[in-house]
């Protein structure tokens, strides 16, 4: 298994920028795995994507992977560093899956992460720090992403929280929880 790092935090906290710095420091060929898809009718979304693209070095390979993340990870070469941005968008892309399909997708993803020889950096949004969403789809998103981040965090070598203009290495200052009971 390559080095696996999780970078998490709230919106606009600098998660992606920190993950990009870590990817550059890896000294490996960086493959940026974008889970977002462009929507030509949404100018504001286009600007967000463009801002991310402008920050990335030109020699990075970019893959658009809105859904088939496990297969993309499994195909990674050992001498690469994959930067997956973001798991929240990936979860949103799969919200229409029923619970059985989602659990299968999640299990496949977590198993794949543990088998890949490449280094992997995952960017994930923190959800659930506020009001419980009023709509079932919002609650499904929050619960799925929260569970994914917790489970991934237990198998990562390092977990960072980016918030308040600071990067905290949770692997140094925190203690991992036991695996959740099914």
UniProtKB/TrEMBL annotation:
One of its GO terms (biological process) is cobalamin biosynthetic process. Pathway: Cofactor biosynthesis; adenosylcobalamin biosynthesis; adenosylcobalamin from cob(II)yrinate a,c-diamide: step 5/7; Cofactor biosynthesis; adenosylcobalamin biosynthesis; adenosylcobalamin from cob(II)yrinate a,c-diamide: step 6/7. Its EC number is 2.7.1.156, 2.7.7.62. It catalyses: adenosylcob(III)inamide + GTP = adenosylcob(III)inamide phosphate + GDP + H(+); adenosylcob(III)inamide + ATP = adenosylcob(III)inamide phosphate + ADP + H(+); adenosylcob(III)inamide phosphate + GTP + H(+) = adenosylcob(III)inamide-GDP + diphosphate. GTP binds at residues 9-16, 34-36, 85. PANTHER family: BIFUNCTIONAL ADENOSYLCOBALAMIN BIOSYNTHESIS PROTEIN COBU, PTHR34848. Belongs to the CobU/CobP family. This is Adenosylcobinamide kinase. The gene is cobU.
């Amino acid at each position: 298994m390559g080095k696996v790092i999780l970078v998490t935090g709230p919106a606009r906290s600098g998660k992606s920028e920190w993950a990009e710095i870590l990817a550059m420091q890896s000294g490996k060929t960086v493959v940026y795995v974008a889970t977002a898809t462009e929507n030509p009718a949404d100018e504001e979304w286009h600007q967000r994507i463009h801002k991310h693209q402008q920050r990335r070095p030109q020699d990075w390979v970019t893959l658009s992977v809105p859904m088939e993340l496990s297969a993309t990870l499994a195909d990674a070469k050992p001498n690469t560093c994959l930067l997956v941005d973001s798991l929240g968008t990936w979860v949103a892309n799969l919200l229409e899956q029923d619970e059985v399909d989602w659990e299968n997708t999640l299990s496949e993803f977590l198993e794949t992460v543990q088998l890949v020889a490449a280094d992997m950096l995952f960017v994930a949004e923190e959800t659930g720090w506020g009001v419980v969403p009023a709509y079932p789809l919002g609650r499904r998103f929050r619960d799925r992403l929260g569970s994914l981040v917790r489970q991934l965090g237990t198998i990562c070598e390092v977990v960072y929280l980016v918030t308040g203009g600071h990067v905290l290495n949770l692997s140094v200052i925190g203690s991992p929880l036991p695996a959740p009971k099914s």
